[in-house]
Design brief:
The chain is an all-alpha fold and 87 residues long. It contains three helices and no strands. Helix content is 78%, strand content 0%.
Length: 87
């Protein structure tokens, strides 16, 4: 494996863990000023924000359920498979 391929693999894995961690901790930590949640939101919102807007535009999900982390995880896994297969 090339260095670029390994670096991209670990980058995609870290992003996956951050999104998964944000989704799981959002059930437990309800305070938006919590330092852990603030870090996770600042790192994952650039990915989840556009996906959330897209899903809202097509009325997928709703106010009670946010499907953007699930959609982001699926997109990241597909993107990782495509990018790593090409390299």
């Amino acid at each position: 494996m090339t260095v670029l391929k390994v670096a991209l693999y670990y980058f995609f894995q870290v992003v996956t863990y951050l999104i998964f961690g944000r989704a799981m901790l959002s059930w437990l930590i309800r305070d938006p000023r919590n330092p852990i949640m603030m870090v996770l939101v600042s790192l994952t919102e650039p990915i989840l924000g556009p996906i959330r807007k897209f899903l809202f535009k097509y009325k997928i999900g709703g106010n009670m359920v946010d499907f953007s982390p699930l959609a982001a995880l699926l997109l990241i896994q597909m993107l990782m498979a495509i990018v790593l297969a090409v390299l």
